[in-house]
């Protein structure tokens, strides 16, 4: 009768057909097996229990959790680790559930995305330490997809290009009021105030971000023009008060069932004819919204509790239901893959400092999560869309540019030559 290790290896050999996978496995008793004469990845499995869990469940979730908890050791570049982990995960896909994501099904849909629950989830992810994020984010502390024009830019340039791309896309003008929902550490509001002359309000549920962003506005001399609030988006009191609204990397925390309410808030706070831009991760296929998939248990447990990724069709439908007319849609999937590669490399370079700040476990969570996310965007398992809308409740045609050229040309054109299409 075969032992568990032999059964595990035979199953892998059977399913890993084609080119040799560059993997070497070292078992708890020192036994080794290499699937390639030149392995790029070495996996140290410290107990037979891990093999049992991979055979019985989703290997990708099991590997991610075991790596974080120290039950599995991995040697190699993160991009190689993820390619190997994907192959192993495909060999042991586990059972797929139609009941939704693991974390949510354990806690129940009724509790998910209450104000208290959302605040707890945001604190878990973002209130790690401002100093930790400062180790690997860019100089503007922007924690969302960058914007690359050539692909050769460093993370600082890519993020400044993204901030400017958003400001141009929203066609920000001096003196306009901009609301940034989920303002993070204040990077977009700072950029928009300094370079476009806006007056802004930013809201966040993260106490660490709130403290940093308020201090930042004071330090940069912007406190009289930019207000930072520790506030749930549902509690924003203004009605028809903002010319423009931005939301960058926030609506993944809203929940699909709450999207109508979320876009309803944007409609409520906007002036008639005001513009909003939603920048967020989307599901690449409609079927990916509801089904449990490999890796989702790990993300739910360790990274983004209660996170939900809608498909673009749902985003557009919910926007339309709130009288938000779509003007422009842009898919930045390659840009996010490139951004995440920059982040994980910068984190690896500061590994010792990161571990000293947040511990080995937290370091492993962020490193493997960002590497896995880069892999997901490269493989089209995740997408990223910027959707630009105008509030159009009254009949007729609100003024707007006839073309997109205003998004890409210099400031002189933006100020002087935009032809607002009044008919």
UniProtKB/TrEMBL annotation:
**SUPFAM superfamilies, per the entry:** S-adenosyl-L-methionine-dependent methyltransferases (SSF53335)
Looking at the Swiss-Prot or TrEMBL record, what is one Pfam family this protein matches?
DUF7884
Q: Which UniProt keywords apply?
A: Lipid metabolism, Methyltransferase, S-adenosyl-L-methionine, Transferase
Q: Specify the superkingdom.
A: Bacteria
Instruction: Tell me which CDD domains the record gives.
Output: AdoMet_MTases
Q: Where is the DUF7884 domain?
A: 20-92
Q: Which GO terms describe its molecular function?
A: methyltransferase activity
Which Gene Ontology biological process is one annotated for this entry? lipid biosynthetic process
Q: Is Transmembrane tagged as a keyword?
A: no
User: What protein family is recorded?
Assistant: Belongs to the CFA/CMAS family.
Q: Please report the name of this protein according to its UniProt entry.
A: Class I SAM-dependent methyltransferase
What is the originating organism of this protein?
A: Acidithiobacillus sulfuriphilus
